[in-house]
## 1
Amino acid sequence: MTTCPKVERYGGLRTNSALSAFEVPVDGKAHRPLEHSSRVFVAGRNGLVGSAVWRELVREGFTDVIGPGSAELDLRDRRAVFDWFAAARPDVVVLAAARVGGIKANATRPAEFLSDNLRIQVNVLDAALEQRVERLLFLGSSCIYPKFAEQPIREEALLTGPLEPTNDAYAIAKIAGILQVQAVRRQYGLPWISAMPTNLYGPADNFHPEHSHVLPSLIRRFHEAKESGARRVVNWGSGSPRREFLHVDDLARACLHLLEHYDGGGPVNVGTGTDLTIRELAELVREVVGYRGSVEWDSSQLDGTPRKLLDVSRLTELGWAPRIELREGLTQTYAWYVENLGSDALRN
Ligand code: GDP
């Protein structure tokens, strides 16, 4: 049996103490504000996160924001990604592209969640490295943390226990992304960073009845029940799991904030710091939508992890705070959903 060299813990990972990615000096480059004329590539520009990051960059005055949609560039195609990077030569990359879905999609299609996400990430990160892209933000997810992590979950909980089985394939892919970012920092000295958002919602979400996350699913279910005059709706599981919800526009602001104020190898949690039960969420959505029938729960459906609340002190210490309160964000998202019924924006 071999023995490991002396290690220290950081960001939940074990590494040789001399090589801690937290310590890699990068001349304070990541703390320099981004130039508004920088060419920023938003990978995943049409998704929930990518479209919000795009809006925020434009709002902040960035003049060269680029990002082909998936029909123009399939990020799973390595050759195509390398060719695209060589031609476009971005200065900054926000990697928001991913195959995402709710509890049922993750539990029933783990092979796709693992393979697609690994390929998207490895291709984009490798191509960005080949072009020596200096500033890069990789987006992960709060599901990277162990199922029974101490709450609220600190970044140090990474890799300290078994994952929630309903989304372990997606989580493993995202953990690989964090490690790749840390490895590039360590080996090449580039100040790349990772952010781990909690459950997100907002405009341009996926409202598919089976494959989406809980919040858009509930909006659609309550809306359709209201429209059809249905006397009851049935939600999944026991309603007792607790979740935290962040409006995607708040995440977009956090992404820019981190790119300008954070330079470390450890991932940074992005959330509100407060959670509620799925039952409480359903009541809130019912009120916002204006549905008056009864609400029932199908306990034969999966509950998933019992609680997933992020400790956001690392981010708040960097001077960031969320602005959009849940009821306000829900009201705005419901209005967006109603406005876009029947349009291409509601892809499902
Ligand atoms: P998770 O946070 O990875 O577990 O993903 P989801 O957002 O899909 O599910 C969160 C919780 O909401 C789970 O406990 C689900 O069982 C519950 N839930 C209740 N109704 C629904 C629904 O209609 N769709 C989804 N996706 N989840 C629901």
Note: Residues 102-103, 143, 167, 199, 212-214, 217, 235-237, 241, 243, 278, 301-304 surround guanosine-5'-diphosphate (CB under 6 Å).
## 2
Amino acid sequence: MTKLYGAIEAGGTKFVCAVADEDLNVVERVSIPTTVPEETMTDVFAFFEKYEVESIGIASFGPIDVNRKSDTYGYITNTPKPGWKDYNFLGEMKKRFDVPYAWTTDVNGAAYGELKRGAAKGKDSCVYLTVGTGVGAGVVVGGKVIEGFGHPEVGHITMRRHPEDHYEGHCPFHKDCLEGLACGPAVEARQGGVKAYDIPKDDKAWEILAYYLAQACMDLTLILSPEKIVFGGGVSKQEQLFPMIRESFKEQMKGYVPTPDLDDYIVHVDLGDDAGITGCFLLAQEAAAK
Ligand code: ADP
Ligand code: ZN
């Protein structure tokens, strides 16, 4: 009989739930709006009731608790999203479906998908950097997603300011951290509210954004030396950004660290919106094999 695996990509706007076979042929996939746990999770449970899966891989918006020794392992922790703060996501799943689980962040899931099947295929390490409503990064090194006492929060690293940028920043905690200066809403606020996709391709806004994203790539390179940096998220659909990020990276790095050919090193996602769910399936299969 064909073995089936479950995947949940839990995002701030929607949950994607899917079931696939060993070869990742998707049997069914649904998208459930993220409202409150009582509503959203009821639909999630109902979806998985229909199948007998070997294991489930979950990649969730965060912050989440990934520390196996913690009493709140498997919880969504300090989110401002109503109803989800301190929600025992993994525990509620386990109560209903007694199978092995993989539990990680949304960006780690996407990083894993891109490493195994996407832009970083064949590599052992990569960073997946998403630039959308927020900024975040998933990190895979030596084929394993990086988790310590918690998970990396690359979106909130400190930035050196672009000399011509006087926008105060969008992060409620730090104002002008990476997310505060480079997320979609920051790009739009800096432009006086013009939607990011309506900003002309040759506008200074993109140069300023590229400067910050290049700086993030430089820091990630200096700390992790990944084999590839893969960009995802709505804002990264602006293709003109890529040559600008590479150019700015070269300028800011000043030749200190030799890197792979930048056209190959700083790239756009390959799996598009499927990166996360693909990563979840692969992590689920690994959890089942353990
Ligand atoms: P989310 O982060 O909520 O999953 P997105 O990755 O689409 O969703 O990020 C939303 C942000 O990205 C918004 O600020 C939106 O204006 C911006 N955005 C979405 N698509 C594009 C695009 N094609 N070009 C530029 N900005 C975009
Ligand atoms: Zn911040």
Note: The longest strand covers residues 14-21.
## 3
Amino acid sequence: MSCPVTGRATDSLSSGSTGAEPIVLDPLVRDREGEIARLRESGPITRIDLLGAVAFSVTDHAEARQLLTDPRLVKDINRWNAWRDRRITREWPLIGMIDAGRSMFTVDGAEHRRLRAMTAQAVTPRRVEGMRPAIERITADLLDRVAELGADGSPVELKETFALPLPMKVVSELMGVDAKDHPRLHELYDAFFSMLTPQEERLAVIEEMDVFYTRVVAEKKAAPGDDLTSALILADEGGEPLTDEEVIGNLKAMVAAGHETTISLILHAVRALLDNPDQLALVLSGEVGWEAVIEETLRWASPSTHLLMRFATEDIEVAGTVIPEGEGVVMSYAAIGRDPAQHGEDADRFDITRTLPIRHMAFGHGPHICPGAALSRLEAAIALPALFERFPRMALAVPNEEIRNMPVMTQNDLAALPILIDAADR
Ligand code: STR
């Protein structure tokens, strides 16, 4: 069998790591659970092959926690040997995950603190809480549409109708992106993340996103609004405002992150509850709260499968392995969330009755910890109860095993989630 993306043999996909051979990750994600299990078996630090780029994967909670605060690991792609040697170029399908312009996502140290401070200031708990009415309104409107589509008993595709539009509407409202641009943005992000997109097309997509966000920033400069993009333009933390490139980079990062990851959180929570009716009953009766559902989903079905990438600025020894200077390090959050040393021997099980707080790392750790965590939790805490209150007899419209991941290596992205809004005999 050969890989449809690279044309290379994929026989090693199912055999896992043999000795010093890196684990070859499947760009089509045909067996996500199997891949996580193989990573866990060869952790805590193992080598993975991502479409021809070999990197170190961190699979355990303790090592991840340690490395995420280690200043010897940085985001600067110029510290990557493979990039410096031109073994990896813009032709590599995952390049957009690393070479994403100057933003708080791609810099470290004092520069990072400067870029991040203004965003952190802007995404205050008050501002997030202030989004509540908007999120409630958006949720209610989308649910009306779901009800309409499913009224005749036919299946409704919950990703397209609910989980996908919600986060884009919310993050756009926050950042000041116009609703008329949402359909195109959805297409662009689908093409950006899918490993089936020809690389030439992906580079054109990245270019179009840059043009788009450059225009948004220019418009906000001309006519500032009550949005975070305008706040980033106007902020002058210690007399040093952000450059246009930095504003554009931060805007891009926040829309991409706010959109892609929250879809995943909502869809996986719904899927897991519908696949575990006994647990859903505990939630619907009020015995277990939505917070437990959300935190368990983040742990068990981390929206970020592999976070690319950090680079070793010197040899780093961790858990008996040396990560040599210039090598890339990937945080494999999907595996980290399943670490039995952190979550118990049944870590592979979805179980909302775990004691809170569940100390997962789905939002990362250290200086780059997700600045949007509170917003995504709020979105899920509004969307999930609203959905199940509206459709208490909802059920999966296809067997759970038939639900597929998108051909996306870094994100836990479902292709679709068909549901029946009123399955009398669930
Ligand atoms: C996508 C492309 C882009 O224009 C900017 C960014 C920066 C933020 C990244 C985003 C990326 C991909 C998804 C990420 C997000 C930060 C959090 C999110 C990695 C590269 C996660 O999946 C955790």
Note: Confidence is low (pLDDT under 50) at residues 9-18.
## 4
Amino acid sequence: MTLPEDWFTEIHEQAGCAFSLRVRERLHVEQTPFQKIEIYDTSDWGRLMVIDGYVMLSSRDNFLYHEMMSHPMLYCHPAPRRVAIIGGGDCGTLREVLRHAEIEQVTQVDIDERVTRLSEIHFPELCEANDDPRARLLFDDGIRWIANAPEAGLDLIIVDSTDPVGPGEGLFTESFYRDCLRALGEDGILVQQSESPIVDREILLGMREAMRAAGFANLHTLFFPQPVYPSGWWSATAARRAGGFEDFREHDVENKPFETRYYNAAIHRAAMATPAFFQRETGQG
Ligand code: SAM
């Protein structure tokens, strides 16, 4: 079968499925020292960023991912002040974190400066908080950066990474999680995008195992829709050394002084609910 040229298609060979978006034009293509970045203009989904053939984000639905990577765990932490984002070069997660007035500093560490520079051009709305004085944008390997981060200096680490291939591979390992644990304060939380619960089951379960082996006593995987990612159903896995994930600052969510498009208190509770099969496989309550 030949694929029509005016469609961008990401084939998930192992899962036996594919996802396509109709494109008008490829606006940019570039091989950086780390990865191949492509930007498309689509007919109905706005701009599309693709890295090494994998869809990263579209203008139309990235709010789901960026809100769910940031707000649930920011509201689970009793008093978050210092945040690190590993990856996240499109800056959408950074923008969401900076909506929280109590945050004092966010350090974003993406290995590839070109992702951020291209986002500034093609996704300017995601980069509108980049000049916030609380934002620190570093371009470095997140694995190395976290290994050298001061002990207990962070309240929340958000791993907004590519899939576990190429430069992102080391972000899914026990030794990386060990370094994250050391960099987190007592109430600290690690949250990482953990792929599709339906087509990337092995990756997700492997991540949870590695996090536990690294010393994180409590884990919780949350779920949300993401139309442009394989299967349309995505997850993030949170981990902390002590304390559970049952409580969140619900009153603060109800009274948050900024707007969200997806996240609210009901979505928080819904996203934290565990599907029956996942409960059986992991014991998550
Ligand atoms: N939401 C996207 C997804 O799940 O497909 C991820 C978006 S974000 C663009 C992913 C970023 O991770 C990329 O900009 C890439 O450069 C960055 N990245 C990959 N490996 C990294 C590493 N070892 N250290 C820091 N950033 C890394």
Note: The chain has a mean pLDDT of 96.
